[in-house]
Amino acid sequence: MDTVYALATAQGKAGVAVVRVSGPCAFDACDQICGDVPEPRRAALRVLRDGNGERLDQALVLTFAEKQSFTGEETVEFHLHGSAAVVAAVLDRLGRIEGLRLAEPGEFTRRALENGRLDLARVEGLADLIDAETEAQRKQALRVFSGALGEKCERWRGLLIRAVALLEATIDFADEEVPVDVSPEVTGLVRQVSTALEQEIAGSRVSERIRIGFEVAIIGAPNVGKSTLLNSLAGREAAITSEYAGTTRDVIEVRMDLAGLPVTLLDTAGLRETADAIESIGIARARARADAADLRVFLVEAGQEPEMEPRADDIVVWAKADLLGDAGNAVSGKTGLGVGALVERIGQALSARVANAGIATRARHRQAMERGLLALQAALDILPRGESVAEVAAEELRIAIRALDSLVGRIDVEMVLDEIFASFCLGK
């Protein structure tokens, strides 16, 4: 491989900037810039010089030997003073060393994958960790990055390999009397993995929502106070409010951290019958987004009924609590009355779902597990038919194993790499 380098920290002025170099010429580059190569994994203060011996900066230098670094290659990190001029000078110096080139987006992580330092699921976990905005996202991404999903896959894979081996023994000795009937053990192993996959698939949709965010739609009649409530929840004037009904024509979205969860609040057009063509479009969009939302908050005038049928876990509250004598189960975005209680109810409703979240966080993970589960269900249908179809059952188990292998990147990895690494910065 080429030796690559890049700024590993964010662009702009900072106290410290880290430039990373990885590949077979990394130590040679360090020697040319520093005059020597510090002992691996021991920080050393060095003066960095250009090709003419002129001083560039004084930096903390860290080196990592092959198989001991993030990428699995010889790696050097220069911890520089974080000015744009210093960083530019050091990058220019590295670019003039033969055998070095600027890294592509995500190339350091891609090398870690290719060198066996990470599996594909851990790479995706790292991408999610970098993008994490809330505490729930951080915890979930860290679990995936730490290898929890890969460990599960490895256990399932081991059980299925054992099942295949037992069936293969039956096939190999088909003409002889096999002293032990292996079908009960094989069936037990397959059922064990099937049950585990069903549970993980069921929890994966919640995990996906944690990763990309929950949607909470505020629904109600025109002029009931939806936009005012949205502004109160967001802490800013995100939506236009007025005394005229039908002001909101399109769905307005506000992203926020609610109880540690990523939530997008949706302010929708007031639901009513109207002859206004533009407002009708807004109402149709409001109904569609409300149907697709993870949770709906119905804002209802006292004595009125919700404009749509609430689902079991939807929240229904009285609007304009400031005008009601009894403010119980009521909210006012104008005065803030009941807003705190509403936020708590939304947080509790979403947190209850998070409790059932699995480790798999992406549609790709879920689809791989669904393919594996289908193959296992086919094997369970075949197994009772006896030894004559053992080879067919074994092939279904191999299909399931390949599906799990694709989940962690043992096979079919190229088709997803470009999409994953497109989200990475140069220094990662």
UniProtKB/TrEMBL annotation:
GO terms for biological process: tRNA methylation; tRNA wobble uridine modification. InterPro entries: G_TrmE, GTP-bd, GTP-bd_TrmE_N, GTPase_MnmE, MnmE_dom2, MnmE_helical, P-loop_NTPase, Small_GTP-bd. Residues 213-351 form the TrmE-type G domain. Its cofactor is K(+). Its main location: cytoplasm. Binds 1 potassium ion per subunit. GTP binds at residues 223-228, 242-248, 267-270. One of its GO terms (cellular component) is cytoplasm. It is found in: Cytoplasm. GO terms for molecular function: GTP binding; GTPase activity; metal ion binding. The keyword Metal-binding applies. HAMAP family: GTPase_MnmE. This is tRNA modification GTPase MnmE. It comes from Roseovarius mucosus DSM 17069. The lineage of its organism: Bacteria, Pseudomonadati, Pseudomonadota, Alphaproteobacteria, Rhodobacterales. The gene is mnmE.
